[in-house]
Specification:
5 strands, 14% strand, alpha+beta, Helix Hairpins, 50% helix, two-stranded antiparallel ribbon, 166 residues, disordered N terminus, elongated
Length: 166
Amino acid sequence: MIWINIRKRNIMTVVGIGVVAVLTLLVLPSLRSLPVTRVGEQGVFKPSGEGNFFADARMNREKTVSRQIEELKKLAADQSQDKAVRSQATSEFMALTERYRKQVELETQLRGRGYEETLVFLNPGRVEVLVGRKTLTKEDVARIGELISKNAGVPLTSITISSIQE
């Protein structure tokens, strides 16, 4: 059975649930000021701002991840830091790059299956998927849920799939 949780709140809440606080603040800062209009009872949201929400969010995520990677690389290479700190920075670097790689891979797989505009946020034990469509059919939800569950290694009950209309 497929479980879907389409939130009937603003887009900031949809994206922010389950996202590590630091990533919420750094990866998607444009969401804080993005005006949102509720479209319908199905939990579909329409950003009322200008530009492409998905492209802007991907660009913000990429910039933030790049900055975080640079900071972690510097910390890991800083010989004045304690060995435990350098080791922790290296571990965090590896986890961050793997999570980012997996998010991009999942978005690419979804595009290959006809979902052109998507964002995937991998969180510990939870995945948030935003799809750029007015509505999603039960078949869409099943297809997306199965793909994410299989490739992210999380149960269907830990996946939230939301549709967002630009």
